[in-house]
Design brief:
Blueprint (H helix, E strand, L loop, with lengths): L2 H13 L31 H8 L18 E2 L5 E5 L4 H6 L6 H16 L10 E4 L13 H18 L3 E5 L1 H8 L5 H4 L3 E4 L2 E6 L2 H5 L4 H19 L1
Parallel strand pairs: 2-3, 2-4, 4-6
Antiparallel strand pairs: 1-3, 5-6
Helix pairs in contact: 4-9
Bound molecules: uracil (URA).
Length: 233
């Protein structure tokens, strides 16, 4: 592999937040000792191409229990992308993100806040996806290796859409996009960055469904207000 190509690979993986590259387990012939690297993102990427590349994915253990891969939904030209953690049971059954109870709340939050702020906006006009595309068993938090493997597809989705802003829903999405390790309570309502794109962190809708977290709802609405004004004003 020539030095320029290797540099481009390393920059690409650095952008993805990948800090370690592994050699093949079996000793390779002397002429082929380069790290095993998945391909670079194609320059003419599209959501369709990413979906094709995901294929019938078996890259991590999450494929074992999934019914459907939950890729993402909404407009490829959306100026804002909402990123959740990973599919739950309803999403796994339907193959569409945020269609269960948390999804209904997310829809209300987006459409309700927009309406109150005089911004005509329907859920179909934004793009919604998750850090991992397969349901973690029992809705557990995705493991770091699962996030790293699936993260390459999230990053390609974001690079393709090139939104004006991203909304990280909950701590997992916030960590995956910003690399910051603070709790979501400290990060919410503040702007971070994914590459050059501003990222607003807010609570995950599932967290807001818990009866003892009702005061957080007002904060989440404030965060969305900030986000939507930034994107649509
Ligand atoms: N929670 C998520 O993080 N994503 C979904 O798609 C549904 C629930």
């Amino acid at each position: 592999m020539d030095a320029d190509l290797l540099r481009r690979y390393l920059e690409f993986y650095q952008d993805l937040g990948i800090t370690h590259l592994y050699r093949k387990a079996a000793p390779a012939p002397v002429a082929d000792r380069s790290p095993t690297l998945p391909p670079l993102a194609p320059s003419n990427d599209s959501l369709l191409k990413i979906l094709e590349d995901i294929g019938d994915c078996r890259r991590c253990r999450l494929h074992e229990g999934r019914a459907k891969i939950v890729f993402g939904v909404g407009s490829e030209r959306s100026p804002v992308v909402f990123v959740g953690e990973g599919p739950g049971a309803d999403e796994d059954a339907q193959g569409i993100p945020f269609v269960g109870r948390a999804g209904q709340l997310l829809t209300q939050m987006i459409e309700g806040t927009a309406k109150k702020e005089g911004i005509p906006l329907q859920r179909e006009e934004v793009y919604i996806c998750n850090v991992v595309k397969c349901r973690p068993p029992g809705n557990r938090t995705p493991e770091p290796d699962e996030m790293e493997i699936c993260g390459q597809f999230l990053y390609r989705q974001l690079s393709t859409i090139r939104p004006k802003a991203i909304c990280a829903l909950g701590g997992t999405a916030a960590r995956a996009l910003t690399g910051h390790k603070e709790g979501v309570t400290k990060m919410r309502g503040r702007w971070f960055q994914w590459r050059e794109v501003p990222v607003m962190v807010t609570y995950h809708p599932s967290y807001l469904l818990r009866p003892y977290n009702q005061s957080a709802k007002r904060e989440a609405w404030d965060d969305l207000k900030k986000l939507l004004h930034f994107v649509y004003d």
